[in-house]
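Appendix B, record 7
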Amino acid sequence: MAIAQGEVWVNGEKAALGQKITPGVDKVTLRGKSVRAAVQPRITLAVNKPRGLICSNEDPHHGDTIFSVLPREFAKYRFFCAGRLDLDSEGLVILTTDGDLAHRLMHPSNVVVKRYYVILKQPFPAARLALLVKGIVLEGERLKVERAALVNPGAAHNSTHLDVHMHHGKKREIRLLFTTLGYDVKRLRRYQIGALRLKGIPLHAMKQLSTKEIEMLFESPRTPHAALEASAFPSALAHED
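Structure tokens (predicted):
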């Protein structure tokens, strides 16, 4: 085998068995000659991720990944996961074969707004919304959101349902923020990226995005009112206790 015999090099170093490469990014040579990967078509998908799937190509601890929901015709392509959701969260995830697009969506220099519908086990008071935006420091890192609003607040000016905006969040940042403040997250769903909403895509399903829809990912969403109506959100979540 060429790899075992040291005849395959990746980015100037000997390749290892099982090593993965990114077509169009990594430089591969065989016996000193460049190997060009087949050019992939640019495909971008909006996926409605259910809870229980991880956003990774593979994980030794979890066999089910978000890529398992893709139709068989996409199995031959390598997709980038442009913005992940944790195992217990659900909603809109962008998968793309376009490495440049994935970079644009994830790079901190690009302000890509993501909106989440959060359901808590305990009512959250309106008086503490400013604290979510100001943030807290946990283990030397500041956890915060860019905007937060109650959904259908009651007479006590609190609600278990919130609309939360974030740009580039850390892993499980929303959950950690609420948990540290003493509120347990029951469900967390990303329903919008930029101006693109998760609409008409059932759980476990996907939709291929047009050029216009891809550009919507970088547009600013409409600023919400201080108190939102549950009717503005997917019914599966908006009416859940």
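Remarks on this record: The helical segments are 99-106, 129-134, 173-180, 211-216, 235-238. Residues 99-106 form the longest helix (8 residues).
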